[in-house]
Amino acid sequence: MNNLPSLVLLKFERRDIILIAGLVFFMIGLTPFTGLAIAAVVVAMMYFGIKVYVDKRRQSILEDVGDGICMECGSKTIDKKCPNCGYSKG
Ligand SMILES: [Zn+2]
Prior knowledge:
Blueprint: H1 4-11, H2 14-34, H3 36-67
Helix pairs in contact: 2-3
The structure holds zinc ion.
C-alpha cells in the first residue's frame, strides 16, 4: 500500500491538468446558478465520467490493435485477416 501515492502520480497525466483546469472554469461558471456544492458535485462527476470514458476508449483501442488493423482499409482484422478486402497481415 506504500506505493499507492506514486501510482496515483504516475496515472496523473498532463492532460489531466488541462482537464481539471477546464472543469474548474466550468465550476466557476456554474456556481452562480447552482451554488458551489452542486457545481463541485457536477464537476467531480464529469471528471470521473471522462476518466472512465477515456480508460474504456484506451482499452478498446488496445483490444483493436491487439487483434490488428488492416493496412489497406483500416478496419479491424479477424485472425489477422481483413473481412473487408482479404488483406492478410501475416
Ligand atoms: Zn482491409
